[in-house]
Amino acid sequence: MFNWLQYFADWLIYAVFGISATTHLGEALNFFVFDTLKIFVLLFVITTVMGVVNSYFPVDKVRNFLSRNKMYGLEYLFASTFGVITPFCSCSSVPLFIGFVKGGIPLGITFTYLITAPLVNEVAIAIFAGAFGFKVTAIYVSTGIVLGVIGGFTLGKLKLDKQLSPWVQNIIDNAQTEEELEEEHLSLSNRFPLILKEAFNIVKGVSIYIIVGIAIGGAMHGFLPTGFFEHYINKGQWYAVPLAVIMGIPMYSNAAGVIPVVQVLVAKGVPLGTAIAFMMGVIGLSLPEAMLLKKVMTWKLIAIYFGTIAFFMILSGYLFNAIL
Amino acid sequence: MKIDIKVLGPGCTKCKTTYTNVLEALKQTGIEADVIKIEDLEEMMKYNVLTTPVLMINGVAKIKGRIAEVKEITDLLLK
Fold first, then answer.
1. B79 part of contact set with chain A, CB < 8 Å
2. CATH architecture of B3-78
3. Residue pLDDT, tens place only, A179-205
4. Tell me, what DSSP letter sits at residue B62?
5. What is the number of structural domains in chain A?
6. Which residues partner with B61 through β-bridges?
């Protein structure tokens, strides 16, 4: 599928720049050009497709759907899947959280959405697909959805309402199912240019992280021997997975750049499950998000929330190491 | 009647860009308007927003969850 990009990278590095394919520099540059272009193409295509899908399921409709339908547990799966298709920005997490509970959606389902939305987003999917191929991406996406369901369900069972800030509890007590805000509706043909523009903005916004990430990855790819990390991290070390998740949590802003680096770590011997657990920590949980959630939750609830999700991320890491 | 514009958002980059775009659009069109920036969450929730930023003109949410471009705002204002 990406042969044409490989031809272009070969042509650019070996023919135009005249750097030999047998040198470390040539190999590293070729890897850099090919990977960067591949990820940018994937990112643009996936954000555009997501933008179109999302224009049919805007978050308002998602909320109304979830608050109207009680589906004997299936609503967790819906909330989690909606989390994948709706775009997510951590600055929206708090209004979203309140908007959901205000609409009478149970806390557990709101948590489900809040877990999956950042964990499985268009940027992560595109870079995963570029770095690890579609099989690993599919595993990541489905694990993210399951993790959202189980995490939200667990948190819902813990009866955490009392740990919300008083003004939020007040909102819950006065929850209403029906509340429409007047707004404008556009047809798809009118929306499409906006979707393309938004996709372009997303690509532009993360491009610097991707380029830096691939540059570091490219350098490591060319200079570290294969299997380098096998001496340090292997499946036998039980603490590698928890450590990977915990290290990942504070690293949010570089999510786009982290995946290309991790790709190289895997190529050099880090177990894939440990690597995926690490990336889940990076992408799914972040300190800026914790600071924002402070406005609606007590520290205790934030700790329970992060702890529960981190626990399930660690479990998935072990699971991947066992099956992959 | 003076137009009433509200920009809702907890202060992220997208919200700030939308706000400056609104000011730019007003300058370009020469239209006078009351522009209010709502950053307080409790206040924001009264308008039932889910994604930020939100651009409201005369009480109607025109653009939600993304940056409103200067051109879009001028079009909305001139309508």
1. no
2. 3-Layer(aba) Sandwich (3.40)
3. 555 455 567 777 788 788 888 888 888
4. E
5. 1
6. A183, B56
Sorted by where each begins, the domain ranges of chain B are 3-78
- Convert A53-87 to b/e letters by CB count within 10 Å (16 or more is b): ebeeeebbebbbebbeeeeeeebbebbbbbbbbbb
Helix (H, G, I), strand (E, B) or coil at B21: helix
- First vs last C-alpha separation in chain A: 24
ipTM over 0.85: no
Structural domain range at position A161? 3-176+185-323
Query: Is-above-0.90 flag for pTM?
Result: no
B16 vs A: CB within 8 A? no
Determine the residue among A47, A54, A92, A201 to mutate to test chain B binding: the one whose Cβ has the most chain B Cβ atoms within 10 Å. A92
Report the residue of chain B nearest A170, measured CA to CA. Answer: B42
Residue in B with minimal Cα distance to A166: B42
Residue B60's region, left for phi above 0, alpha for psi from -120 to 50, else beta, is beta
